[in-house]
């Protein structure tokens, strides 16, 4: 299911190490247990209360980034570059990154652990090519997303790469659709797999990817605010301040204004 890694930027070296390479499943589970104890979650297997569950909002974790680059400036369409080319290249890259980020926790995203594709009180359903609603587990949903996006971004009629080929009139609508799906996957990772991401020390990557993706989508109105409302609290924390560190005024406390927002985990 993983996309061709050759097109991924430089940080793939860190992300592409499968968890198994350095950390056995047992080690990850132990680390998850440690994080759970730290968060004072109930050890009896009961699901923690909603507010308690939003560990990703804790300033200690939310301020973690792998870069302090200003995404707000980075997402702007550069002069002399065609809008569709810019949308195509960024969308393809986000797809690869979301796919990679999900792959780091995919062994925990099973049909049993994640019986539905749910984020908070929102339930996502897949619709097949004939528009028929398909009831599926979260890993099945993610598989549908990745397969259909992979098909689109490698379709010369939709994402043309050859000189002289035109983008279709439906291009923007398709990019919006892809962004919606990628948002669902990111939201699911935060909602259901943040503890594992934390145990793998990949939350800095996840936060960076999320902030970059949301600011890009916002710049070109690619996501419906109603769609993203479910993660508004996180977006506020991660994207205020233009993605540059973020978290300022949203819960981070103590320390100098500059230094506290640029915590790096590595
Ligand atoms: Zn899952």
UniProtKB/TrEMBL annotation:
Compositional bias of kind Gly residues: 245-258
Primary site of residence: cytoplasm
GO-annotated molecular function: kinase activity; metal ion binding
Coiled-coil residue windows: none
Keywords tagged on the record: Cytoplasm, Kinase, Metal-binding, Nucleus, Transferase, Zinc
Residues that hold Zn(2+) according to the record: 109, 114, 188, 193
UniProt keyword Cell division, yes or no: no
GO cellular component: cytoplasm; nucleus
Function: Stimulates the autophosphorylation and kinase activity of STK38 and STK38L.
Name this polypeptide is given: MOB kinase activator 2
Species in which this protein is naturally found: Mustela putorius furo (European domestic ferret)
